[in-house]
Design goal:
Length: about 220
């Protein structure tokens, strides 16, 4: 019997690849996805992806999606309370592990571990410690297609927002940018890959600057 696992799904490449890795494991069974969304805008926090597209992703990977709504703005106390309620729900449904696509930021991992301590659910980090350039190359070679939905213009020019992440695009980025954007340089939306039953048909919409970041609106293509 494999351990029942829910995966933190940001809509981006790292969580998608974590799903791909976990599905090859004999130890864990991914039984659901969960995503924190901004209740004021109905979008994924930071990635700014529409809930409609989140649902399409979940359908494409064949898993139920659990939405965790947080207010905007959201204090640390409010976030902690919402997550505590969600973990109680997960525990009631027999979840043993919660998986995250974090790569190497120790403070982020420590925060998750501290928040889950005593919950009865164990945090899991299937991509932890992987060299990020090699990891990205593995993702792209494996068929992952992903676009930049958010960039930090302090470190990455605004014109990168909305573009597909390729080895060529990575080569054109300024030096010092983490290949996977792990330091918040950019966030992504995955629209194709081995974890999907079929690619999503998308197009890029308006690009706006808000709260110090540049966001590209990803839309389902009208056919």
């Amino acid at each position: 019997m494999r351990n029942k696992t829910w995966l933190s799904w940001s809509s981006g490449k790292d969580s998608a690849w974590a799903l791909h890795v976990l599905r090859q494991s004999a130890e864990y069974e991914v039984a659901g996805l969960f995503t924190t969304i901004n209740s004021a805008f109905e979008r994924v926090a930071m990635h700014a992806v529409r809930v409609e597209l989140l649902r399409k992703q979940a359908q494409a990977v064949g898993l139920p999606l659990y939405l965790i709504e947080i207010p905007y703005p959201c204090s640390d106390e409010q976030y902690a309370a919402v997550m505590e309620d969600f973990m109680a729900r997960a525990r009631d449904e027999g979840v043993q592990f919660m998986a995250f696509g974090d790569l190497y930021l120790e403070d982020v991992r420590r925060y998750r571990e501290e928040r889950m301590q005593g919950s009865g659910i164990t945090p899991l980090f299937p991509l932890w410690g992987r060299p990020t350039r090699a990891l990205l190359e593995e993702m792209l070679a494996g068929g992952v297609r992903t676009c930049l939905t958010c960039v930090d213009p302090k470190v990455l020019p605004a014109e990168f927002a909305g573009r597909e992440l390729t080895t060529e695009l990575l080569a054109s980025m300024p030096s010092g940018i983490d290949p996977c954007g792990e330091n918040g340089e950019f966030h992504t939306f995955v629209f194709a890959g081995p974890m999907f039953s079929a690619p999503l048909d998308i197009e890029m919409g308006e690009v706006v600057e808000r709260d110090g970041f540049v966001f590209a609106d990803c839309l389902p293509r009208n056919t």
